[in-house]
């Protein structure tokens, strides 16, 4: 759903960029400065929210997304190692038989 919304926004933005009024507005330094400040504010808010969420996760002793990904990666490597060891055991057993 989010991808559909994003795609629709991109399509509308492309339509707007072809407008001469929008082109004039974008070339205005006041608009570009406001847009730039808006992007900086968005990043600051994201950083603050992320930091606050990490703090909440730590307080509640919950794993963060990065920690879950790391655990999944490690588990996958362990599973691969177990499979390799099982195959080695099978091959040794077949050689003995």
Provide structural commentary.
The longest helix has 32 residues, at 29-60. 91% of the residues lie in helices and 0% in strands. The protein is elongated. With 97 residues, the protein is an all-alpha fold. The chain has helices at 2-17, 20-27, 29-60, 65-96. It contains 4 helices and no strands. The protein folds into 2 domains: 1-62; 63-97. The model has no long low-confidence stretch (mean pLDDT 92).
Brief overview:
The chain has 97 residues and is mainly α. It has two domains: 1-62; 63-97.
What key phrases describe this protein's structure?
4 helices; mainly alpha; 0% strand
Topology, pairings included?
Elements lengths: L1 H16 L2 H8 L1 H32 L4 H32 L1
